[in-house]
């Protein structure tokens, strides 16, 4: 059996998706969960891109000891120095340096000749080697690069000491058979290829990220770079849960396996979705709400007779457990804690206490709370936002014969702020009042609402996105009152935006 190494880049490529930024505490929580999941490598960030990125890599390197902790950098000495500094406390540090090798990137973006790129690649690996043994090198846009040039670059960087060579299809352009052929060409034509681990990194622009990664491992790659829920630049990356469950479910015919603890997949997916505010589509393979649901009569009948008729994986193998206990108003702390454990949560004591208090508040109004309600409650506790503004209350007057009016009270630096506005609708009135109180005009780009369960007494979950210059921030709120949920989500996104403004980020783009 060939062991396939799982390189998780949720905290780096994943965080590059619009609105998916995480703060240091959230990244640390995700890294700790990735360690439980059993990933081999955590790409913790892009050290030179911001002070926040640097600090989060450093914290993760100090506290997460089992996986390799990797820091990304361009093929530039200052970038490599920052990456080396950020992982200096890691038990197993890796520096990951990259430069583009495709004609379009070399001429239009880098304005460098192929010879200069080759020289820069070798110099970068040599520079990184003074700091760590484990150096990964990526040929950005390898999918559109000339294979003969790739062979030259890869053999040279391996000679310079690269321990891992990564082949990204940066723009998700290749078809599975083409990507498989590219890896095969490199496996057979790079003379020293056996001296390094060959890695694949595929984007999903044409929906082939997982198929291409699979084609890559079938051609001999033994590391797959992927993200939880497939988040990442543009259409995203290979989804960790998909490639892992494909390798797990078809292990015998593939002759491959991973070190992933598959039962941690669902809790990890939920954590990442909560901290990024990036919802998972219902029909998403492995972790979507419908991934294990059977709707049609024929399917239900088949599954009742034998699960094997329509299920190729057991839901419990990805950590999706059927509810054994429904909670209600009489459930105590013990039952609540047991439920959290059953659902795969590992909350800190104060977060658990806060979730319990909210549970009690909701259980007073709503008779029973399902697992979905508990997930929505806990999602509020896994987001760590500096509460520059705290929502104390909202009061709304709305109806078909009145102009919607909102009164809002916030706390800011220990001061009470209060205001009222009319709006086109009640949500508009609330958001306008908040804008007035924080003395800013927030640009709302997305607002969505969904009921966590069926029933008119369901919790409403609101997700919003706001834009601040080039940055997007997501906010999420759940409440029995959808207007309260909307206000909570808006304030959360604003608090994230204000935290970001405080971080003096030196934003770097991938590649120049
Ligand atoms: O997609 C890409 O090329 C990347 C590299 C930096 C590895 O993310
Ligand atoms: Zn990428």
Written description of the protein model:
The chain has helices at residues 24-37, 51-63, 77-86, 103-110, 114-129, 147-159, 176-189, 209-218, 240-249, 251-254, 265-276, 297-305, 333-342, 349-365, 371-382, 426-438, 482-502, and strands at residues 2-3, 5-8, 41-46, 68-74, 93-100, 135-140, 164-169, 197-202, 223-226, 256-257, 327-328, 368-369, 389-397, 405-412, 415-422, 443-451, 460-468, 471-479. The chain is of the alpha/beta class and 512 residues long. The chain has 4 domains: 2-276, TIM Barrel (Alpha-Beta Barrel); 292-320, no CATH class; 321-382; 390-502, Alpha-isopropylmalate synthase LeuA, regulatory domain (Double Stranded RNA Binding Domain). The strands form 5 sheets. An 8-stranded parallel barrel has the order 2-3-4-5-6-7-8-9, surrounded by 9 helices. Strand 8 (197-202), helix 8 and strand 9 (223-226) form a beta-alpha-beta unit. The chain is globular. The model is unreliable at 505-512 (pLDDT under 50).
Number of strands: 18
Point out poorly predicted stretches: 505-512
CATH class of the largest domain: Alpha Beta
Portion of residues in helices? 40-55%
Topology of helices and strands:
Elements: E1 2-3, E2 5-8, H1 24-37, E3 41-46, H2 51-63, E4 68-74, H3 77-86, E5 93-100, H4 103-110, H5 114-129, E6 135-140, H6 147-159, E7 164-169, H7 176-189, E8 197-202, H8 209-218, E9 223-226, H9 240-249, H10 251-254, E10 256-257, H11 265-276, H12 297-305, E11 327-328, H13 333-342, H14 349-365, E12 368-369, H15 371-382, E13 389-397, E14 405-412, E15 415-422, H16 426-438, E16 443-451, E17 460-468, E18 471-479, H17 482-502
Parallel strand pairs: 1-10, 2-3, 2-9, 3-4, 4-5, 5-6, 6-7, 7-8, 8-9
Antiparallel strand pairs: 11-12, 13-14, 14-15, 16-17, 17-18
Helix pairs in contact: 1-2, 1-11, 2-3, 5-6, 7-8, 11-15, 14-15, 16-17
The site of zinc ion (ZN) has 6 residues, from loops.
């Amino acid at each position: 059996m060939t062991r396939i190494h799982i390189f998780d880049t949720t905290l780096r490529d994943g965080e590059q998706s619009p609105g998916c930024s995480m703060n240091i505490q959230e990244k640390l929580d995700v890294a700790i969960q990735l360690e439980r999941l059993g990933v081999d490598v955590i790409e913790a960030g892009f050290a030179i891109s911001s002070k926040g990125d640097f600090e989060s890599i450093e914290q993760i390197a100090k506290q997460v000891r089992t996986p390799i902790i990797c820091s990304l950098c361009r093929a530039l000495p200052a970038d490599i120095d920052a990456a080396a500094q950020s992982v200096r406390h890691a038990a197993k540090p890796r520096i990951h340096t990259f430069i583009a090798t495709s004609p379009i990137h070399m001429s239009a973006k880098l304005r460098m000749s192929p010879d200069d790129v080759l020289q820069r690649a070798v110099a970068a690996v040599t520079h990184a080697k003074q700091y760590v043994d484990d150096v990964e090198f990526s040929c950005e846009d390898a999918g559109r690069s000339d294979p003969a040039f790739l062979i030259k670059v890869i053999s040279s960087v391996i000679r310079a000491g690269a321990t891992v060579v990564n082949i990204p299809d940066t723009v998700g352009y290749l078809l599975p058979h083409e990507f498989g052929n590219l890896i095969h060409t490199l496996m057979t034509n790079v003379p020293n290829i056996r001296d390094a681990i060959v890695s694949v990194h595929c984007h999903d622009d044409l929906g082939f990220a997982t198929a291409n990664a699979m084609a890559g491992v079938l051609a001999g790659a033994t590391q797959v770079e992927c993200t939880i829920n497939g988040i990442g630049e543009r259409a995203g990356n290979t989804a960790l849960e998909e490639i892992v469950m494909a390798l797990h479910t078809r292990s015998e015919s593939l002759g491959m396996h991973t070190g992933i603890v598959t039962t941690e997949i669902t809790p990890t997916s939920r954590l990442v979705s909560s901290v990024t505010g990036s919802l998972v589509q219902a029909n998403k393979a492995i972790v979507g709400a419908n991934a294990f649901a059977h709707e049609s009569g024929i399917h239900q009948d088949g599954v009742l007779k034998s699960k094997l008729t329509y299920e190729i994986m057991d839901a419990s193998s990805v950590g999706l457990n059927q509810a054994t206990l429904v909670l209600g108003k009489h459930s105590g702390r013990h039952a609540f804690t047991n439920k959290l454990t059953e659902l795969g949560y590992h909350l800190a004591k104060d977060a658990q206490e806060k979730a319990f208090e909210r549970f009690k508040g909701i259980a007073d109004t709503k008779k029973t709370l399902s697992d979905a309600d508990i997930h929505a409650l806990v999602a509020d506790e896994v987001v760590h936002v500096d509460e520059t503004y705290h929502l104390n209350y909202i009061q709304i007057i709305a109806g078909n014969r009145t102009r919607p009016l909102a009164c809002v009270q916030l706390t800011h630096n220990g001061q009470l702020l209060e205001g009222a506005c009319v709006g086109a609708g009640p949500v508009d009135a609330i958001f306008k009042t908040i804008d007035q109180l924080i003395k800013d005009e927030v640009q709302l780009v997305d607002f969505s609402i969904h009921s966590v369960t069926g029933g008119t007494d369901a919790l409403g979950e609101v997700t919003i996105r706001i834009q601040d210059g080039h940055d997007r921030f997501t906010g999420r709120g759940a409440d029995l009152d959808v207007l309260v949920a909307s206000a909570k989500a808006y304030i959360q996104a604003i608090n994230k935006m204000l935290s970001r403004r405080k971080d003096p980020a030196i934003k770097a783009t991938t590649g120049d």
